UniProtKB/TrEMBL annotation:
Location of the RNase H type-1 domain: 1-81
PROSITE patterns named in the record: RNASE_H_1
Name of the protein in question: RNase H type-1 domain-containing protein
InterPro entries the record matches: RNaseH-like_sf (IPR012337), RNaseH_domain (IPR002156), RNaseH_sf (IPR036397)
Protein source organism: Pleurotus eryngii
One MF term in the entry's GO annotations: nucleic acid binding
Domain of life: Eukaryota
Length: 365
């Protein structure tokens, strides 16, 4: 946290400029002073926040009534009591102070770790190739909300803890354009499989993520968005069919009421609704493609399962990591069956369901 704060502060100054930061964390100060030589010898392998290590620390002892310290503590306390984590930009500058490790200072484990770090950095570099998808997302979000999220926020979305693991993976893959669909087949193996890039249902349209999630005529896509629309309108919001960019960046969407107050419950419901809907359409697509099973998939079931999970996550056994009750109540407000008959705090009542007049969608191949 202190490193992140220092990093944020450092960003306010030009690169490579010496700045002083007043802090009371012995750990951080130590890594900037006494451990500096060892860190440099091992080429910063395994050391986080390398880019911060050109800071010049000024020592202050404990809190002892230092006014700035007390104020920083107060801010930190207020932050930790928030229901919703703020958006933090942790992107690192390209500037790095590592010029390699001294071989004699390395043991084997550290060396291997260094190789792994280098590989990860390379993978990160590959993201550069994905610029077009990021640009599409930014354009769509700008059009639908007036605000284009930055790249860090878009990647942050794919890790949002409101999404189950498989949805985080799906969003990450789709944002990387890494699924073997659409144009992938026109460029692979000398275009030998070009016909695989086309949707067999939709008059030879390129079957990319945009097509599958927002315009394919096969059963599923339109019905699922129709139900999403129904639920979203129940929340008192206007609906516009999400474009691919709205879907992939659903976690960055900020919703305010007429008074300009941020609606955290509605924002959370939006990202759950859009991500679950998109993932369901994708799952149906995959099942159709691999001709596997004939399980019925219903969006109402999906959303009810998610509601159930939310209720369970508020329970005490998850202790500190438990989702807060008021967050869950706000998220689902307005979209529940017989909501006016439910107790004010319905978290512990079993059988709470999402309200829908639409017939559930059944996949029929
Ligand atoms: Zn299609």
């Amino acid at each position: 946290m202190i490193m992140a704060a220092a990093k944020k502060a450092a960003r306010l100054f030009p690169e490579r400029e010496s700045i002083g930061i007043l802090m009371d964390s012995k750990y951080v100060i130590k890594s900037l002073t006494t451990n500096l030589k060892t860190n440099e010898d091992r080429g910063y392998i395994g050391i986080e926040n390398k880019e911060l290590l050109n800071l010049t620390p000024l020592l202050t002892t404990g809190h002892q009534g230092n006014q700035m310290n007390e104020e920083a503590d107060l801010l930190a306390r207020t932050g930790s009591e928030k229901d919703y984590p703020g958006q933090m930009n942790l992107e690192v500058n390209n500037i790095s102070h590592t010029s390699g490790a001294k071989l004699q200072a390395l043991d084997q484990a550290t060396a291997y770790r260094g190789i792994r770090e280098a590989k990860l950095a390379k993978a990160k570099h590959k993201r550069e190739r994905m610029k077009p998808v990021i640009t599409i997302i930014q354009d769509h979000m700008k059009d639908s909300t007036g605000i284009a999220p930055n790249e860090g926020q878009i990647w942050g979305t794919t890790k949002n803890k409101d999404f189950p693991r498989q949805i985080r993976f799906f969003l990450w893959m789709a944002t990387h354009d890494a699924y073997k669909i659409g144009k992938y087949w026109t460029t692979t193996i000398g275009g030998k499989y070009t016909e695989w890039s086309l949707c067999t249902h939709c008059n030879d349209m390129i079957e990319d993520m945009l097509h599958i999630l927002t315009s394919c005529q096969t059963p599923g896509q339109a019905e699922i968005w129709e139900l999403a629309k129904e639920l979203w309108t129940k929340k008192g919001h206007k609906w516009r069919q999400p474009w691919i960019g709205d879907i992939l960046a659903c976690g960055t969407r900020i919703i305010k009421n007429d008074e300009g107050e941020t609606q955290h419950g509605d924002m959370r419901f939006w990202r759950i609704l859009v991500a679950e809907s998109a993932y369901l359409i994708w799952k149906i697509h995959c099942m159709r493609v691999i001709q596997d099973g004939n399980q019925p998939i219903s969006q109402t079931e999906t959303m009810n399962e998610r509601l159930d999970l939310d209720r369970k996550m508020t329970q005490n056994r998850y202790s500190k990591r438990a989702t807060k009750t008021r967050v869950v109540l706000k998220t689902w407000r307005g979209v529940l069956q017989n909501e006016h008959e439910l107790p004010k705090n319905w978290i512990d009542s079993s059988g709470v369901l999402v309200d829908s007049d639409l017939h559930t969608h059944r996949e029929n191949r």
